[in-house]
Amino acid sequence: MATTQEFDPGEVFSLFAMNEVDSHSFDALVVNAEGADLCCVFMWGKDCYNCTLFKNTALMLQDQLKALGLSWFHADVYQDEALGRRFGLHGVPAFVFYQAGKRLGRISGWPGLPQFSEAVAGLRARTG
Fold first, then answer.
1. 3-state secondary structure at position 107
2. pLDDT score for 80
3. Does the pLDDT at position 73 exceed 60?
4. Please, what sign has the CA dihedral across residues 44, 48, 53, 59?
5. What is the C-alpha separation between 71 and 93, in angstroms, rounded?
6. What residues contact residue 89 under an 8 Å CB cut-off, 6+ apart?
7. What is the C-alpha to C-alpha distance for residues 72 and 53, in angstroms, rounded to an integer?
8. Taking the model in full, what pTM does it have?
9. Are 92 and 80 in contact (CB under 8 A)?
10. Beta bridge mates, 40
11. Chain Cα centroid distance, residue 66
């Protein structure tokens, strides 16, 4: 069985300049974000095995993830259950995408970098 290192969210959050959001700040920081950036909210939980898989991938393949040009945010939905309920989450990680006030979609689970990159490219193609 493969193992992962203990999840240290601060390292990934710092590396990708992920701003923390919660149910109180989500609309102001993500939905109403100024500009045309594609915003990705990484919804995670402490001691989540699949969140750790994403974190390890992000650390190993940071250049490829950064090349996607996303504005990153993060939310611990184990601590903020209201935010998890808002998006009908049944598990984490989940990645929610917004641009210019519009919710574009969600990726549930960590599908791997190729599929994640393909989904982001699809969102960009739809939004021009």
1. strand
2. 97
3. yes
4. positive
5. 17
6. 43, 77, 108
7. 17
8. 0.91
9. no
10. 72, 97
11. 13
Helix and strand element counts for the chain (H, E): 6, 5
Distance CA(111)–CA(113), nearest Å, equals 7
pLDDT of residue 10: 79
The C-alpha atoms of residue 100 and residue 32 are separated, in whole angstroms, by 7
pLDDT tens sequence across 1-32: 444 455 455 789 999 999 999 999 999 999 99
In whole angstroms, what is the distance from residue 119 CA to residue 81 CA? 26
Specify whether the CB–CB gap between 76 and 45 falls below 8 A.
Answer: yes
CA distances from 7 to 10, 18, 26, 32 (A): 9, 16, 24, 30
Q: Which residues contact 65 (CB under 8 A, 6 or more apart)?
A: 16, 57, 58, 113
The residue whose two tokens read 């935010």 is 83
